[in-house]
Specification:
Elements (H helix, E strand, L loop, with lengths): L1 E5 L8 E5 L9 E11 L1 H9 L16 E9 L11 E5 L13 E5 L3 E3 L6 H5 L2 H13 L7 E5 L4 H12 L3 E6 L2 H9 L3 E4 L5 H9 L4 E6 L5 H8 E9 L9 H6 L2 E4 L4 H5 L4 H15 L7 E7 L3 H10 L5 E5 L1
Parallel strand pairs: 8-9, 8-11, 9-10, 11-12, 12-13, 14-15
Antiparallel strand pairs: 1-2, 3-4, 3-6, 3-15, 4-5, 5-7
């Protein structure tokens, strides 16, 4: 089968098309013909940083985490899937798990769910990593009907899913963005847009919560922006974040009694820990999509498998709106 392989990591690393063996599904695995995959920020980090990231595979490396496709073979001990099922998941491209930038993949069935029936393969491929991340953060933060939820970065990959899921759970949703296109998307997805470049945290906390703060802040920007999240949260509020590799003064979090939930969704893949939870989350997300409450946004540019390098460059350019998808 054809696969896009990285032989050397670094800023100038390139993908090379190679012919490799079609994998044979082992115990608990499905063999899937991949129809589409998507690019996530962690994929670009692995490509550039290599061994500086402890989750990077050894070279030559087959990257790519998300996919959607069709089951073509099933291991003897798998009963929940059959040949012909259309499925999606986040299954590899890190540590010892082969990635999705290929024509086929053999993957752990616990990380996979049946694709939502009302969307295509490209849309389905855009969901798994960001969808699981958004869902996990909101659930761990204890989202409930009627709460006020703020999503930082609501036009981004995780943010645009978190925004829609929060709305599905019955929250009153607000979201920050930094430009007209971003704010237009946020409003179109059903949240109240906040321009963080023109409104201070104090401004929008007073405007939308009467100074009380938001019950949940989902921070997909993270880093130094976590201080803004602490300031925007209500007393005893919850912060969910995907980016906490930083040093911060937690004084505000202490005096407001905040709970901080760090979401690192790669843990089940890296440590073979509760992998079945990812499959269950993807089932739940499929139900939300089939109810019409969630729609993944795809960037206007799509790429072929041979253009994997261009797909990475598109995401890194910062010009993409929505998920960057590769057609196989």
């Amino acid at each position: 089968m054809k696969a896009m392989i990285i032989t050397e990591y670094g800023e100038n690393s390139v993908f090379e098309m190679q012919e490799i063996e079609v994998p044979t599904p082992k115990s608990g695995e499905l063999l899937i013909k991949i129809a589409a995959s998507s690019v996530n920020t962690v994929d670009t980090m692995i490509r550039k940083m290599g061994s500086d990231l402890p989750l990077s595979p050894e070279t030559p490396a087959l990257l790519g985490m998300d996919f959607a496709g069709k089951v073509v073979a099933v291991a003897h001990d798998v009963s929940d899937f059959k040949v012909g099922d259309e499925v999606y998941g986040c299954v590899g491209g890190l540590a010892s798990l082969p990635g999705t930038l290929a024509e086929y993949i053999a993957a752990d069935n616990r990380l996979i769910a049946k694709k939502p029936k009302n969307i295509g393969m490209q849309e389905a491929a855009a969901i798994p990593l960001v969808g699981i991340t958004a869902y996990e953060g909101l659930i761990r933060a204890g989202i409930r009907f009627g709460q006020k939820v703020l999503v930082h970065g609501g036009s981004g990959g995780v943010g645009h899913i978190a925004l829609q899921l929060a709305k599905h759970f019955g929250a009153e949703v607000y979201s920050t963005g930094g430009g007209e296109k971003q704010l237009e998307l946020i409003e179109r997805l059903g949240a109240t847009g906040i321009n963080y470049k023109t409104e201070t945290v104090e401004d929008y906390v007073n405007k939308y919560t009467d100074g009380k703060g938001f019950d949940i802040v989902y921070d997909s920007v993270g880093g130094p922006n976590l201080i803004n999240s602490f300031n925007a949260a209500a007393l005893n509020g919850h912060i969910a974040t995907t980016v906490s590799l930083c040093e911060l003064d937690l004084s505000t979090a202490h005096f407001k009694g905040l709970s901080l939930h760090v979401v690192f969704m790669l843990i089940p893949m890296l440590h073979n820990f509760k992998r079945e939870e990812h499959g269950e989350i993807l089932k739940s997300i499929a139900e939300v999509i089939e109810q019409g409450d969630l729609k993944p946004i795809l960037d206007e540019q799509s790429f072929s498998l041979a253009e994997a390098g261009k797909a990475h460059a598109r995401l890194e350019s910062g010009l993409a709106m929505g998920k960057v998808v590769i057609e196989h």
